[in-house]
Amino acid sequence: MERPLIYLDNAATVWPKPENVYHFMLDFYRSTGVNPGRSGYDLAQEAGSLLDRLRARLTKFFGGDVDAPERLCFGYNATDAMNLVIPGLLSRGDHVITTNLEHNSVIRPINHLVREEGVEATYIPFNTQGFVEPDAIRKAIRGNTRAVIVNHGSNVIGTIQPIAEIGRICRERGITFVIDTAQTAGVIPINMKEMNVDVLVFTGHKALMGAMGIGGFCIRKHVNLRRTRAGGTGVRSADPYHIEEYPWRMEFGTPNMVGIAALWAGQEWLDEKGIGNVYAHEMKLARRLVDGLRKIDKVRVYCCESLEDHLSTVSMNIDGMDAANVGVMLDVDHGVATRTGLHCAPLVHEQLGTANIHGSVRFSIGAFNTEEEIDATIKGVEAISRWLDTRRSRPAAGAPAVSN
Asked: With 80 as the cut, is the pLDDT of residue 133 above it?
């Protein structure tokens, strides 16, 4: 009988989704799969209504300007959104502050602007516990600092950054504050106003319980982005230039209505379950995992001394083994799916000292994982560690090598 997969790669994509998400996506697409609001017939108006209602719902969910839901703009994912937000904020002569915790969706757009547009950038390291010190942000501010961009929750080490404190500093200095909530949206409460956040970037396919290919950003009324794309909007088609009003200012072409439907259903599920309850379940399992891993010889767990202000994402290595090999053995021998390597966040691994050993093994727990799965995962890591001991003591009797 085939062994069921233990899926611990939820930081990449939450899977499976709640059943209501699958049903609503299919039902909506079958019944209302037309371009939203771009024609006068009833189905087009119905599709447009769902799009508008989701804008308003997510704006409230993120604590944005509820009287301006048009400033919730949709795109493909958080990477797509960052590639609109970052060039839309920064230009030649500007200075941006970001951190070593960032995903390549932030690092690469900034580095391109530095190389090609004369933007200046400062990367702030995290402390030994995995947190960025707000005072380090304050000290890095210059006269030409235009924006601060911070990863709310690390996709490698799981630490949740002190967003409210950093936001307060930015507000005092009149600097635009952008946060990446790819790992936190749908996991912990976020209020842009209370946290002094100006732009919030999100993706739909993770803890918001939506589908792949949907994401976007929410932007406060006092902030404007320079448009960097142009195309069809379905509105004022005779105008030879792209529309300046939101949301069309930052949206291009036919929206992903299947993704919109999935996000709507995901909101329904989160409202029913309560994100606090989901988070408590995930962290209970994370504590069980960390406690078990710490008891295994040669296992090194990163930035998990305390799980306060932490997501259910845990990275580890087994001393003397390549992370990729550990991941393959967990998959093939124990049915555990993880993510190995640099996790699209190379600066984290450079600071941890794991870049030169090909990164780490990441376990990311989701809403549908169980205690039994965590216990089986711990046993799998323990078995690999024992196998390594046997291989070291009797090289000729070792298991076949696993290639990268």
From this structure: yes
H/E stretch holding 8 reads none
Task: Round to whole Å and give the CA distance between 297 and 389.
Answer: 10
pTM over 0.90: yes
Q: Domain 6-15+273-397 is of which CATH architecture? A: Alpha-Beta Complex (3.90)
What is each CA distance from 285 to 184, 208, 289, 380, in whole angstroms? 17, 19, 6, 16
Stretch (H or E) spanning 63: none
The pLDDT of residue 1? 52
Domain boundaries, given as residue ranges, for the chain: 6-15+273-397, 19-272
391, two tokens: 């291989």
- Tens of pLDDT, residue by residue over 246-290, are 999 999 999 999 999 999 999 999 999 999 999 999 999 999 999
> Cα(148)–Cα(112) distance, rounded to whole angstroms?
17
- Say yes or no to pLDDT of 159 above 90: yes
Q: Are residues 290 and 314 in contact, defined by beta-carbon separation less than 8 angstroms?
A: yes
Q: Single out the residue of 312, 316, 398 nearest to residue 357, CA to CA.
A: 316
The answer to whether 234 and 214 have CB atoms below 8 angstroms apart is: no
**Residue 283 near residue 307 (C-beta atoms within 8 A):** yes
Architecture of domain 19-272 in CATH? 3-Layer(aba) Sandwich (3.40)
Q: What is the pLDDT of residues 301-344, one digit of tens each?
A: 999 999 999 999 999 999 999 999 999 999 999 999 999 999 99
- What is the distance of C-alpha 164 from the center of its chain? 18
